[in-house]
Design a protein that fits this description.
Chain lengths: 361, 45
């Protein structure tokens, strides 16, 4: 027992051992991603060779489905866990590298439109979730967590707020479970609705980025529609993520005034601490590409590196979604979450359709 | 369950510390640098 504890402590302290512990899980993510690409290519090759008309099912869906099957049908050995958890790291590295696919002029145009819609979406979502939570008699801090999670950026926002508003673990877990369950549903619902409405890539990407809460699920929901839509979904979602500090700060000040949370000292430091730093990396790459630092072949390589990083993310999204855990959440928070998310999806769809008429997305 | 979801997420975050974003930025910029100097070329998809 003591030897095992000592070995664990050694592993924690030795950086090489910590990195080595990530390898099995990362290899599992890569294997799932490669299998997903192989299935997509095999089906496409077969249907083309035999002149069969069959819709193209993207590797994104296969990666998520394989991950879901493995994660839910079998107990994934603990040796893989640390590496599987790196899916969030690959997501962020992928977003930074995705900057290579946006010239600064594109970002200015799309960000301008996105920001206007993001402000309306955040305000609308906060009001909607708060009203629904009160109507269903949820606890005030649980209402706040659901409102923050659905308006800004899902699980990260809930974790960021938990400490700031001094919410308890149970409320946080309900809010996280509701957001994760709804994220899983959105992966199926959003591409189907987007296709049924014949939305353009830009309009759909904007909608997915505005309405899907978790960044990984928003990226996947966008990529499930098309590569171009995935790109716009990430940019829009990044705009939402950038607002996290302001929203959490607002709630933290509210609860501090009521004497139920710690007082925030330096507000600028608080905002910087909550700011998603990968946005800066995204901008650095985009500016470098816009200034001609990379030639066309290099830009293509950077874009493809971003795709590889996202491939690992999508495999992780599937592995991480555990229906057994999600089904254990309370019914009322889930009902509030579902009603709120449906209303937010409708609100943002209306916003995007309106914006499309004004700016022709 | 309280603990299953929150603990899992909180532990995951703390394993990487607050620097996960910065690590992602550093690794991505390092990859971009390798592409720029030609050590990584013709990455296909």
């Amino acid at each position: 027992m003591a030897t095992a504890a000592l070995a664990l402590e050694n592993e924690r302290q030795n950086p090489l051992l910590r990195v080595a512990a990530l390898i099995p899980g990362i290899l599992l993510l890569a294997a799932i991603g490669l299998a997903a690409k192989w299935i997509e290519q095999s089906i496409n090759g077969y249907t083309k060779a035999h002149h069969i008309v069959f819709p193209n099912i993207e590797y994104v869906l296969w990666a998520i489905v394989i991950g879901l099957l493995i994660g839910n049908l079998m107990k994934v050995p603990a040796i893989f866990q640390a590496g599987i958890d790196t899916y969030e790291f690959w997501l962020k590295a992928g977003i930074v590298l995705l900057g290579s696919r946006f010239l600064v002029a594109d970002i200015r145009k799309l960000t301008g439109i996105s920001l206007v819609l993001v402000f309306v979406e955040i305000g609308g979502s906060l009001l909607l979730m708060t009203a629904l939570g009160k109507a269903f008699g949820l606890r005030p801090k649980l209402i706040n967590l659901l409102a923050i999670g659905s308006s800004v950026c899902g699980v990260s926002a809930i974790i960021a707020s938990k400490g700031a508003i001094d919410a308890d673990d149970e409320d946080s877990s309900f809010a996280i479970a509701a957001i994760l369950a709804l994220g899983a549903i959105s992966l199926v619902a959003f591409p189907a609705i987007g296709s049924a409405l014949h939305m353009s890539n830009n309009a759909y990407g904007l909608w997915a980025g505005l309405a899907v809460d978790n960044t990984a699920e928003a990226t996947a929901a966008g990529a499930l529609f098309s590569d171009a839509a995935g790109k716009v979904a990430v940019l829009t979602k990044t705009c939402r993520n950038a607002m996290i500090g302001f929203v959490v700060l607002g709630y933290a000040i509210y609860w501090a005034r009521k004497g139920q949370a710690g007082v925030i000292g330096n507000k600028a430091a608080f905002l910087w601490q909550k700011f998603p730093k990968f946005v800066l990396g995204f901008l650095v790459i985009s500016v470098a590409v816009s200034l001609g630092t990379f030639n066309a072949d290099q830009v293509k390589s950077l874009a493809n590196l971003s795709r590889w990083a996202f491939l690992l993310t999508f495999a992780g999204v599937g592995l991480r979604t555990n229906f057994r855990v999600l089904s254990k959440q309370g019914l009322r928070p889930f009902v509030v979450g579902v009603m709120g998310e449906v209303l937010i999806a409708v609100l943002t769809l209306g916003l995007v359709i309106g914006a499309n008429r004004i700016w022709t997305l | 369950m309280a603990d299953e979801v929150v603990q899992e997420t909180v532990v995951k975050k703390s394993n990487w510390g607050l620097n996960l974003d910065w690590w992602a930025v550093l690794v991505a910029l390092a990859l971009a640098l390798l592409v720029r100097v030609g050590w990584l070329q013709h990455i296909s998809w």
